[in-house]
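Take a protein:
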Amino acid sequence: MSYLVVDLSRLSLKQCKAQIKEQDGKTFLFAKSKKKLKKAKKFAEKHKGIEVVRLPEEKVSRVIAKHIQNLLWNNPRAKIIVLSPRKKLKKRCKELREAYPKAYVCVFKECGEFELKDKKQKNKKDRENKRDKKDRKYKEYKKDKEDKKDKEDKKDKEDKKDKEDKKDKEDKKDKKDKYKKLLRFNEDAVKEPVKIPRVSVETEAEKVLQAVKHVLDDDISLAVEEYATSPQLNDVELAIKKNQPKKKNDLLHYLVQSVSVSEAEAADLIEQLKNAGRITIDVTESVKYL
């Protein structure tokens, strides 16, 4: 989904009207003064998909960057165009691009610059898509070739194994026939007393107890795992496959939004993920996904 963020505290609404009307996705108009807020709200009433946000007197760049970060939390592949001449905001957007590499976040100083660069970006994206398509076809061809070779090798191994098994069976049968011939009509062998090996009852009982203990331990461990697993853990695992925040606090907020739980429940789910070996959290609260 695409978003357009316009900083009306530094830009004029009149200059950006054409770009806002052409925008397919949602548009956010950030304004500080009462005059610009009034104009922005009046313009939003006439056009759909426009939301007006009031800016504070201080730390404007941080507020806009925080709003962009919330959009990326919900959609890590979002396309966000920012129209603002603020240098601090441009720096913060660069950090967000590094945190969300699959998203497209670009900052333009003016509305006209955005229109010109948008066409260049579109042409560049078309070239990249063509190149990716060729690479994908080559990879598919290479993979099919390797799969065919693996199947042939597997078939050869199976044929070889069947021949060896057949030969072993024939050898065992020959040895068995020879042994029967030696024992046939051998009266001396019949007269000799048969020696039955003496088996210790205590040794056999100990072996049986060890086998039973091993089976019981496996059943108990499985029961503990089933009991410790939360019914929401499957939803959490699906959520972190789509998005993997790098910090513990970011992961907590993401779980609250994606799984619809409280902060305490989200913290409990993070502990369950750690116990299950899905994630690790170091001293700096950086999250590593296993």
Observations:
- The two ends are 29 Å apart (CA to CA).
